């Protein structure tokens, strides 16, 4: 191993760490410099490239790295050099992760710009009132969709036909708050279909491919909401609760009934889980008011998910929880649920603003 290997990798890691500290101290700067400039540029120039172009690009980069660092050295091989040689690719992979995606975790969260003030504690009374209102909302939406046979819709065809609309909806949510929404990201269906579901996830942002991915085997009702969530990631929204919040806002402002229903039913499900642990009797009473059509949709979704049982769910949750916490997401995987409080705070803000007019 060449002596210079210590120096060049050390410089790269040091620069990356210093940038991380600066961004950690200045979330708005992280958003403006990294999310809106560096990350947006990557999205523009690499996001529309074919998978073969990107595979060749990454292959060339890794071959060049290994060839450079495997040249003969006049210095004797030592245990520390061999350890460093083994660890160097993993160190560079971590650095690459941050430059391609990870610095987004240090940027300001969209809800901090959208919601002026909010309380983190949600009372049982507030949950009850919102659960009742949400039940009415999903019942009305489902009645409007009564002529649509959801089971005949294809996940892949939905992704191909509607992703531009979802992307525009997410962009409309983020644009007023200073986010760079140019160079629209493209959503891809992950292959083989169903594999992501077996690992307990519906989609993810693939920083190697510079695109958000979604499992096409999701039920059609789930796809618009999950698609908007992953597209929010592609605009640089890293936190899972934040992405859920942005996806909800994007869904509710959409003129597409399926997109709105997907967003509102997802919130209804989260509220049901939140409220049932607080008051089981009241929760069951409200659930009894749900349209039979919605109950049928929930059963269809459950049957679809049962085709792809989780592989090692406890291990997956532990690893992902640790990863999220290592990126500064203190709630870990519980951050997904955080969006209920964000939506309720946003609704209170919207009601207050309307009352002033």
Summarize the structure.
The chain has 357 residues and is an all-alpha fold. It has helices spanning 4-25, 27-46, 51-69, 79-100, 110-114, 124-144, 155-174, 195-198, 222-234, 240-252, 257-276, 280-287, 292-306, 313-326, 339-356, and strands at 188-189, 203-206, 211-214.
Number of strands: 3
Radius of gyration, rounded? 23 Å
Give the terminus-to-terminus CA distance.
70 Å
Class by SSE composition:
mainly alpha
Average the pLDDT over all residues and give the rounded result.
Answer: 84
Structural features, described:
The chain is mainly alpha-helical and 357 residues long. It has 15 helices and three strands. A three-stranded mixed β-sheet has the order 1-3-2, covered by helices on one side. β2 and β3 (211-214) form a beta hairpin. The protein is globular, with a radius of gyration of 23 Å. The model has no long low-confidence stretch (mean pLDDT 84).
SSE topology:
Elements: H1 4-25, H2 27-46, H3 51-69, H4 79-100, H5 110-114, H6 124-144, H7 155-174, E1 188-189, H8 195-198, E2 203-206, E3 211-214, H9 222-234, H10 240-252, H11 257-276, H12 280-287, H13 292-306, H14 313-326, H15 339-356
Key terms:
mainly alpha; 66% helix; single chain; 3% strand; 357 residues; three-stranded mixed β-sheet
